[in-house]
Amino acid sequence: MLPQLRTNSSDTGKAGPELRVVAIGGGTGLSTLLKGLKRYVMTLALATSGQPTIGELCGVVTVSDDGGSSGRLRKEFNLYANLRPVKLPAALAHVCPLRPERQGKGIDILVVRELTAGLYFGKPKKTEEVIEAQAGPHPPRRFHRAVDTMVTTTPEIERIAHVAFRAAQTRRHKVTSIDKANVLENGVLWRDVVTQIGKKYPEIALQHMFVDNGAMQLLLRPDQFDVLLCENTFGDILSDEASMLTGSLGMLASASLGDGTALYEPSHGSAPDIAGLGVANPLAMLLSVEMMLRHSFAMDAAADRLAKAIASVLDDGWRTRDIASADTPADRVVGTSAMGDLVAERL
Predict the structure, then answer these.
(1) Cα 208–Cα 292–Cα 241 angle in degrees, nearest 5
(2) CA 235, CA 163: separation in Å to the nearest integer?
(3) Of 15, 122, 213, 297, which is the most buried if we count CB atoms within 10 A?
């Protein structure tokens, strides 16, 4: 299966694991939301019979948004697999920027992104001054040169490819692998290794696609994609593009998984411009909790209940301002706390 954290079963005699909720970016509004989420998760754990309990939840850990905390967390805990579900609920089809005919039969994509290799982590990474001699009496020419290094190894590609193919086994049995093999040596290796791994999953259809074409196809025919497998940089860009198909980053959850460690967070940032205003959409965080229940604690029944509760709220016409339309009644546009309460009521 996917890289997972599982609770200890009751017959081991061991205590359940500590759950650490990590917020990337500070802000009292986000901390308040996460404290509320702790209560929701505990309610799910206690109310779901036959499922392992989560155990004692720890306090919220906030990490200052200094531009590098996310990368350090990935490396420190070896969080190499990033999962971003991009699903457009029928109730929100109106907020998708694509025309209905472009939406096809519905948008349901899982972006699987390699998270600890490639251009973002390769060495050397530096900016240096260059002094270039000039002919004749002219003084030397001075300028700066920036160097980034893109490094990818076979084991790194193999392990993320396995994540993508195993995910496809539980979905629509198709993997589209993104590369730039016509230009980059990294792309050539990526395509070769993914092809070899794909042979171990004969029931999964494998398609290779250049990243520029992939970016275009996401806008032309997004319903053709099931699992989208990407290296780090391409995955960063395409997952953000794909997220807009849902109309709002406030609807996008994510999971960053390693072998024994996982981090769950919304795909959006800390949004300091609306911090403390009570208008942020909490559904991405709640959907991240759903992923946590499913992948880390094997609480599929609880995860299903949470997903159905969110769908019920949307089907009943409740909206935060980022997913509201001109036709949404004013009394159906609510803030962060009210939206969270509506979901909790349906649990």
Answers:
(1) 40
(2) 14
(3) 297
In the DSSP assignment, the letter for residue 67 is S
Residues 162 and 213 in one domain: yes
Q: What is the pLDDT of residues 24-67, one digit of tens each?
A: 443 444 445 555 555 555 555 555 444 443 333 333 333 333 33
Backbone angles phi, psi at 179, to 5 degrees: -155, -175
Provide the domain count of the chain: 3
Give Cβ neighbours of residue 252 (< 8 Å, ≥ 6 apart). Answer: 84, 85, 86, 243, 246, 266, 267, 268, 284, 287
Same domain, 130 and 35: no
Band of residue 2 on the pLDDT scale cut at 50, 70, 90: low
Same domain, 176 and 268: no
Give SS3 for 224.
helix
* Pairing relationship of beta strands 126-132 and 61-63 according to DSSP bridges: unpaired
Amino acid at 140: P
Containing domain of residue 112, as a range?
97-117+152-246
Enzyme catalytic residues? 120, 180, 212, 236, 240
What are the distances in angstroms from CA 216 to CA 38, 171, 341?
Answer: 40, 23, 39
Q: Output the CA–CA distances (angstroms, integers) from residue 189 to 107, 116, 119, 131, 205, in the order listed.
A: 30, 17, 15, 35, 20
112 and 192 belong to one structural domain? yes
**Residue 87: inside a domain, yes or no?**
no
DSSP, collapsed to helix, strand or coil, labels residue 331 as helix
Predicted confidence (pLDDT) per residue in 206-258, tens digit = 999 999 999 999 999 999 999 999 999 999 999 988 888 887 888 889 999 99
Last residue of a domain, one of 128, 150, 172: 150
Contact, 156 vs 187, CB < 8 A?
A: no
